[in-house]
Amino acid sequence: MSRAGKYPVGLKDGVTATLASGAIVIKGPKGELKVPVDTKHAGLVDIKVEAGQVSVTPKNAEDKASRAMWGTMTRNIRSAVEGVTNGFAKEMYMKGVGYKASVSGKKLVLVAGYSHDVIMEIPEGLTVEMGGSPTEFTIKGIDKCLVGLFADKIHKVRKADPYKGKGIFYKGETIRHKEGKKK
């Protein structure tokens, strides 16, 4: 039995949910998100929008795929409600000699120790805000998946080096430093 799915998702003030063809549309103060109902698994769960809440129930409680989609759909709807009310953010920083980041228009420019600058297009619906120093920045948006994917793409530009301790990090991420070779 899904622990995530057995509680309905409460809609906060100013948030509305409607069932459309193949998706649930969640509207809130920060924008609108569509949570797709996978057509392959659409017959596995029932979704109901009732007085201030969205409830998801499995069609067949004995079927393993139905129980899995029950929890997945509930979590996706809960994330969408959270996104349109508060939004999501990933804080990142760079560590290394000469490492820095800047935003110019809809492009993020990273100087990460390569012979060239790494220029990344900021996806639609996301913003990148620079922090107090040129090595700190925050990725913000209403779609949790899109924020996480773009942050991971940036993180892969220069992964954290366990020997020298430099690279692109998430705030709060800890890297175990390794000892170099001994002579």
Labels describing this entry:
183 residues; alpha+beta; Outer Surface Protein A, domain 3; three-stranded antiparallel beta sheet; 13 strands; elongated
Can you put this structure into words, describing what you see?
It contains two helices and 13 strands. It is of the alpha+beta class and 183 residues long. The chain folds into two domains: 9-85, Outer Surface Protein A, domain 3; 88-170, Outer Surface Protein A, domain 3. The protein is elongated and about 65 Å long. The mean pLDDT is 89.
Task: Provide the number of structural domains.
Answer: 2
Radius of gyration, CA atoms, in whole angstroms? 21 Å
Please provide the ordered H/E string of secondary-structure elements: EEEEEEHEEEEEEHE
Percent range for helical residues?
10-25%
Q: Give the CATH architecture of the largest domain.
A: Alpha-Beta Complex
Major sheet characteristics: 4 strands, antiparallel
Provide the CATH top-level class of the largest domain: Alpha Beta
Stated plainly, the CATH topology of the largest domain is called Outer Surface Protein A, domain 3
Question: Can you count the beta strands?
Answer: 13
Q: What would you call the shape?
A: elongated
Strand content: 35-45%
What is the count of helical runs?
2
CATH 4th-level superfamily of the largest domain: Ribosomal protein L6
* Poorly predicted tracts of residues: none
Structural class determined from secondary elements: alpha+beta
Mean pLDDT across the residues is: 89
Write out the strand line-up for the largest beta sheet, numbering strands in chain order. 11-12-7-13
- Span from first to last CA? 57 Å
